[in-house]
Design brief:
Helix content is 40%, strand content 0%. By secondary structure, the chain is mainly alpha-helical. The chain is globular. The chain starts with 19 loop residues before the first helix and ends in an 8-residue tail after the last helix. The model has no long low-confidence stretch (mean pLDDT 96).
Length: 72
């Protein structure tokens, strides 16, 4: 049997939702307090520029506030 991992861009916590826990997870990663697993690094890169930074935090925040949508 094959196993597949589905990535939801913006869902850095891996719980299937984009919410404040993802903001915290990305923030902790940026501050180097938490190391994300490889698949969660893909998910945390909400702007898809191969970096996890404040731009991703902003993208997730804007999504939570329903001001923009993170394209999947």
């Amino acid at each position: 049997a094959r196993t597949y991992t589905v990535i939801l861009y913006g869902d850095a916590s891996g719980d299937g939702r984009i919410d404040s826990s993802d903001l915290n997870t990305i923030f902790q990663h940026i501050l180097q307090r938490k190391v994300l697993a490889e698949e969660m690094q893909y998910a945390a890169d909400a702007d898809k520029n191969d970096k996890i930074d404040s731009s991703d935090l902003n993208k997730v925040f804007q999504h939570i506030l329903q001001r923009s949508i993170i394209e999947q």
